Amino acid sequence: MRVDLVRCADAQLLLEGPAGLGVLYDRHARTVMRFAVSLIGLGDEADEVVQETFLLAWRKRSSVVAVNGSVLPWLLNAARFEALAARRRRVRRESRVVPLDLAVHDRAAASSDPSGLQEVLSGLSETDRAVVEAVLVDGLSYAEAAERLEVSVATVGKRLQRARARVRAGLRTAAETSKGGC
Which of 85, 92, 129, 140 could bond to 145 as cystine, CB 3.0-4.6 Å? Predict the structure, then answer.
C-alpha cells in the first residue's frame, strides 16, 4: 500500500524518505525563504539558508519536534540559526578585503628610490632573495615557492618575514641618509 504523502503530517513526511522531504520542502520552502530574506536580505545567501535548513531537517529527521503536527516552527528556528551563521560568514569575508588607497600608493611610489631598493635587495642572502623573487615578484604561493626552492613552507614564511624587515630597515636608513645629506 502506497502512502499518500500530500496528506501526511510533517513529522511523518520526514520519516518517509527523500520523497517525503520533497513534499515537506514544497509545503514550507516559501515560508522559510520569506523568513530568511527578512533576516539577511535577498540573494544567494537566503537561498543557501533555505537549503541548509532543509538539509539539517533531513539529517536530524529522527529528532525534529513537530508542534501541533507541523515542523514549521522547527524549520524557522533552524533557519534563524543558519541565517546568523551566514551573516557571520559574510562579515568575516568582508573584513578580509582591504580597499586599495591609490593616494597612499602613489605617494609611496613617488618617494621610493628604485636604486635604493635594488641596493637593499642586493644585501639579502641568496636564499632570501630567491624567496622574495618567488613570492613577491613571481606571485607564487608559499607552498609553490617552497616546492620550487625545495624548502618547507614555514621556511618560506620566515625568510620572507626576515627579508621584509631587512628591506624596511634598509629603506628607512636610505631615506634618513638622503634627507640628512642635503
Answer: 140
Phi/psi zone of residue 3: left (φ > 0), alpha (ψ -120 to 50 degrees), beta?
A: beta
User: What cell was used for 26?
Assistant: 514544497
- Given a contact cutoff of 8 angstroms between Cβ atoms, the answer to whether 27 and 14 are in contact is no
Q: Any idea which fold 102-180 has?
A: Arc Repressor Mutant, subunit A (1.10.10)
Give the CA count within 13 Å in the CB-facing half-sphere of 2.
Answer: 5
Give residue for cell 638622503.
178
Give the architecture-level CATH label for domain 5-95. Answer: Orthogonal Bundle (1.10)
Q: What is the C-alpha radius of gyration for the chain, rounded to an integer number of angstroms?
A: 29
Q: Which residues of 26-44 are buried (b: 16+ CB within 10 A; e: fewer)?
A: ebbeeebbebbbebbeeee
State phi, psi for 103 to the nearest 5 degrees.
Answer: -65, -45
pTM over 0.85: no
Which residue ranges make up each domain of the chain?
5-95, 102-180
The residues that bridge with 67 in the sheet, in sequence order, are 70
Phi, psi of 154 (to 5 degrees): -60, -40
